[in-house]
Amino acid sequence: MSDLNTAMIEKYRSNFLKEVEANVEEGEWVKMCMQCGVCSGSCPLGKHWDHPPQEIFMMIRANKRDEVLGTDSMWMCTSCYNCIARCPRGLPITHIMHGLAVYSKRLGLTQKKQPTAEFSQIFWDNLMKKGRVNELKLGLSMYFKDGFGQGVKNAMANQKLGQNMMKAKRMNPMEFFGGHSVKDLSGFQSMVKKAQEIEEGNLKEAK
Amino acid sequence: MADEKKFAGYVCTGCGLGERLDAGQLETTATRDGKMQSCKQHEMLCSAEGVQLIKDDIANESVTHVMIAACSKRAKVEAFNFPEVAMTRANLREGVIWVRPESDENQETTQEMADDYIRMACAELKSMSQPSASGEQTLNKNILVVGGGITGMTAAIEAAAAGYPVHLVEKSGKLGGALGSYYKVIPTRSPYDAPAENPVPGMIEAIEADDRITVHLNSTLAKTEGAPGRFNVEVATESGSSETLSIGAIVQASGWKPYDASQLPEFAHDKSADVVTNHELEALAVAANGGPIKRPSDGKEIKSVCFIQNAGQCSDKEGHLSYFSGVTDLVSIKQAMYFKELNGDCDTTILFDNLRTPGAGGEDFYRAGQQAMVTFSKGIASEVMPGDSLTVKFEDKILNEQTEMVCDLVVLATGMEPNSGPDPYAQLMVDEAEDEEEKAKAQAILENAPPSILNLQYRQGTDLPHLKNGFNDSHFICFPYETRRTGIYAAGPVRRPMDAQQARDDATGAALKAIQAAENAGLGRAAHPRSGDLSFPSFRKEGCTQCKRCTVECPFGAINEDEEGYPMYNESRCRRCGTCMGACPVRVISFENYSVETVNQQIKNVEIPEEWDEKPRILVLACENDAYPALDQAAQAGVEINPWARVIPVRCLGSVSLSWVTDALNNGYDGIVMMGCRRDDDYQCHFVRGSAMAAERMSKVGDTLDTLNLEPERVILHEVAITDVERAPQLINDMAETVEKIGLSPFKF
């Protein structure tokens, strides 16, 4: 468990709802849920979730901190926005789900090998290098994330797809060597750094 | 009427009547068969010109009786309004041409139908006279309000503001009622985001300053006799003195009482001082005097509180209220916000199953509660365990688990019970119970009857009848604001559970109804639903057998008995439904314009074709409140009705005399269809029991059919709603099919 997690447990001891309000993006909306269940009923992937949104909101109010931050339910959200469109109380449910996912990751409570979480990290790292996504490298990182042997297997399985993409000029094999970046890469990187500093600052304040 | 009668008929040829029917023949029918002394045609009788034609005849030709052959009696009522004469309407438009297809082969039967309706209207006109008020009383503007809570105070203020003197009678020593001792109230104005100031002190001031309102504290009604416009009310004070008031109309605002929480042992109300009801919490909030609310047991500042919704209500369990009190969810939100306001960071949890926040600002107030960090948990509490801190066991309905929480105070959201008088029909319920279980239930109600509030000196009991669960309500769709005792209006939580704002709205409505009742009584006019009707029942004393059926069966308790046992009608208590007329076995009760004879004459003047003509006749007796409008709407929609039907509107199926049925059968009618409103528990009868009485009486019609050797299918009684636009005509057509199957009646001459 991270230091930050310990600090947060210490600070909000018995009130997880307040912790969520303070630290999770759009978390101040959680208290406004009226438990109608329309979000859960609207979610196309709902049956694959351990806890649909309505239940997550209830768990937050019931102080079930470990269960909420430890579940991979919010990582299952595909941002289809059905729940937001339908919520009679106007809760930004999709954003709350992302907010919870980010918070749990930041505290180091996200399940290991959670595919969405893994992909998100790979995507982020890829993006940070050149300020734009290098699709070839992103694909390769995904193939090889579980080791070299598995990576070769994955690559062979998608061989035909890759060839066709190259033929159709949809993928440039030269991108493997460095790849091109945004015009002002250092500007981009310092912008992101600043944003991260602000966020960290907010959390520190919360500490 | 001493003056000579003069009968005039008017045939309208507008709306296609002229094209579809032979107006000349209709005129002949009216004068030759209907014995009208004159008959005129007009191409649009409801136009200013047509109306003037009739008015001129009334003024210049001294016409006293008018027969109008045009549209349904429910159409063009403003145009055909001649209060100085007796009037009948032959329904040729909705009754004939709109329900019959336009074709040559149908022409003969359509014309026959129209001719019959003219004969019926003329015959009816012959046996009626123009109604006029009895002059039984003069206008009495005094309004009596019973109960000095927020409802009664509002009714008093509103009636006084309209210029009517008010007597406000309150049992206790001060005005204000239950709400008077509350800390704050549910907000009634936008933005509905916090509990609002209690309006009661301001209202007491307003009443004390108003010289049209006389307040009688520590007083009850020892006796209420008379009728709207001439009530004599004896007001007795605690000290033993009494005074008699002369009153025009009454508002009963006797309020509510809190449910007895000691009936909920699982929530430990009687074991722990820290388990209170919502009603009791108000006193704690007032006692806090702007500071934090303290625990009753040890005076400790409350840090966490749990509200248990629906405690002892909305439940089938023995001793629980079977209904929901409507406002208790709003009340809990309000009280939870007391804690947020007074106790700082106090944890407040509301355990609800179905959170209902009715009213304009209900939803906003709920959101305001959530904004204020009141926790709403969908869960059902099963037990409160007393101790230094209380433990509430509950089932979390979202997370599907049995769990518990610990808190300093538990508030039970218990329901409201009406503070009504004894049900005058409690004995009747015992007598009429269908099984033992029902009988035992009714017996318990009878034995646990509360003390009387009004002490009415009525033949049918001392107080307003109950509708459900002891509330003094009546059918709100059929009877907005009316109770089953004319001129006495129940308002506020005695009528149904409600909050302060609803009670104030209700009281305003009741005050206006009371004013209307007093004014109507002064003019001898009926109250809803026959508003403005001047006709009233009278009886032929020499024929009366003092059987008391009319006095027992009147749904409004309007009829008292004199020392010899003859009925006394109390015109201004009467709703003019005619249930007494239908009840009378010797047919001595009649209205000026509606009697056994007026309908009998209509029945007899339908031409009954010879048996070999193969043209059956079906008599339809349709309630004018629901069935007849349904038939009118069906006609507008072009739904076809069988050409053998002859429809007679009746005031209520309760007014139907068994003699109409036997006479019709003796006259050769082949079938009889009676259409009344839904009866019994979920009744829709405008006169409450009229339709049920009819069903009861008609259940004996089988004997009549037996003696006549006729098939029982020939007489049928249906419950018809105003929305049965397709079904009502179908019921008539079904009878035509039945007649075709079983053959024509042998009683044709």
Describe, in short, the structure shown:
Chain A: Residues 20-54 form the 4Fe-4S ferredoxin-type domain. The complex is a heterodimer of chains A (207) and B (749). Chain A is mostly helical.
Explain what this protein looks like in three dimensions.
By secondary structure, chain A is mainly alpha-helical. Chain A folds into two domains: 3-111, Alpha-helical ferredoxin (Fumarate Reductase Iron-sulfur Protein, Chain B, domain 2); 115-197, no CATH class. Chain A contains twelve helices and no strands. Chain A has helices at residues 3-12, 16-23, 38-42, 53-61, 65-70, 82-86, 93-106, 115-130, 135-143, 148-157, 159-167, 185-206. In chain A, α8 (115-130) packs antiparallel against α9. Chain A is globular, with a radius of gyration of 20 Å. The two termini of chain A are 16 Å apart. The mean pLDDT of chain A is 90. Chain B folds into three domains: 7-131 and 594-742, no CATH class; 143-255 and 419-523, 3-Layer(bba) Sandwich (FAD/NAD(P)-binding domain); 258-415, FAD/NAD(P)-binding domain, CATH 3.50.50. Chain B contains 21 helices and 31 strands. In chain B, the strands form nine sheets. In chain B, strands 15-21-16-17-18-19-20 form a seven-stranded mixed sheet. By secondary structure, chain B is of the alpha/beta class. In chain B, α2 runs parallel beside α5. The model of chain B has no long low-confidence stretch (mean pLDDT 93). In chain B, α9 (328-342) links the parallel β16 (304-308) and β17. At the A-B interface, α4 of A face α10 and β18 of B.
Which key features would you list for this structure?
heterodimer, A: 207 residues, mainly alpha, Fumarate Reductase Iron-sulfur Protein, Chain B, domain 2, 2 domains, globular, B: 749 residues, alpha/beta, FAD/NAD(P)-binding domain, seven-stranded mixed sheet, 30% helix, elongated
